[in-house]
Design a protein that fits this description.
alpha/beta, single chain, six-stranded parallel β-sheet, five-stranded parallel β-sheet, about 35% helix, 10 helices, Rossmann fold, about 325 residues, 2 domains
Length: about 325
């Protein structure tokens, strides 16, 4: 095996929150082995990723490279050398994947490791290069032993973003006391539920107003609540529906700017992997995090035991 294959390749898929998890698990493996990490960006075309019919307007793009990460983009040759050739969506590939249940000779190649279920898998920590990772890996247990490294690399390449976030929150704090970020995840989830009346292709429902109000009630009077959502229309929904004193809204910012602004807050009400990272990147003592106990669609099997750290409160 040539040296060019002595790498970890991690597949990126989904929005920024997913991308950060996918990078973190690959970066941890590459770091402990002293080898390069490379990124498979093939899930994204010039117009973004693929969405279910009716949700094309909500395509996600690669934002990970706006952070101080340590990874290059894998070439198609490097990906093909490690990834299972039946990993795609072609009918023939789907047939082979079904047959693998009965014939071990058709099993996944040793270099391709896919996430088996939505739980922490300790076997991942022992994977060695060459290795191709495909999954979501939504647990801090995959990178707890390199926490400082991950937090350092998940800072924006543009230092002004972090500084502007710090100053903005300081301004709110000086006038109102502690600042709580409130993430209201809507976007394609609300569009699928309310407009298409079809939630296929989405991981869960939009953030419910009942959860938002219950989460806000967890914090003492005098806090300032800084609300984040997906679009101008979603922020307008928040303005019309959320009831609380001392509300502010994040408007006109990019994904990366919003995430850094979240991380600069004192406490957090989260609703997705995006705001999960906004809370996790805040390592200041005394920080409190409220998370929803229902993460995906009811009955979806998305157990959050490994996703939500033990010191965060689920309601």
């Amino acid at each position: 095996m040539n040296n060019s294959q002595n790498v970890i390749i991690t597949q990126l898929a989904g929005g920024l929150g997913n991308q950060l998890f996918q990078y973190a698990v690959g970066r941890r493996l590459a770091h402990v082995q002293g080898i390069p990490l490379k990124l498979d960006l093939s899930c994204y075309g010039p117009e973004g990723d693929t969405q279910a019919p009716g949700l094309e307007a909500f395509r996600r793009h690669v934002r990970l490279q706006e952070f101080n990460i340590s990874a290059d983009v894998a070439t198609s040759e490097e990906i093909d050398a490690l990834r299972d050739r039946h990993f795609g969506s072609k009918t023939s590939s789907r047939v082979v994947r079904q047959l693998r249940r009965f014939w071990s000779t058709l099993d996944w190649p040793a270099t391709h490791f896919r996430e088996r279920r939505y739980r922490f898998d300790p076997a991942v920590l022992g994977l060695t290069a060459p290795c191709y990772l495909a999954g979501f890996w939504q647990s801090e247990k995959y990178f707890l032993d390199v926490t400082d490294l991950i937090r350092r690399e998940f800072t924006p390449r543009d230092p002004a973003i972090q500084e502007n976030s710090r100053r903005f929150v300081e301004g709110l704090r000086s006038a109102s006391g502690p600042v709580v970020s409130v993430h209201v995840r809507r976007g394609e989830l609300a569009h699928a539920q309310n407009i298409l009346k079809n939630t296929r292709g989405t991981f869960g429902p939009p953030t419910g107003l009942e959860y938002i109000q219950r989460a806000i009630a967890q914090f003492e009077p005098g806090c300032r609540f800084l609300v984040f959502s997906d679009s101008v229309a979603d922020i307008e929904w928040c303005k019309k529906n959320i009831q609380a004193d001392r509300l502010s809204f994040s408007e006109g910012r990019t994904d990366v700017q919003d995430m850094m602004l979240m991380s600069a807050c004192d406490h957090h009400i989260i609703a997705s992997t995006f705001s999960w990272w906004g809370a996790w990147l805040n390592d200041r003592p005394g920080r409190r995090v409220v998370a929803p106990s229902q993460w995906g669609h009811p009955g979806s099997g998305m157990v959050t035991d490994d996703l939500i750290p033990s010191d965060w409160k689920m309601i």
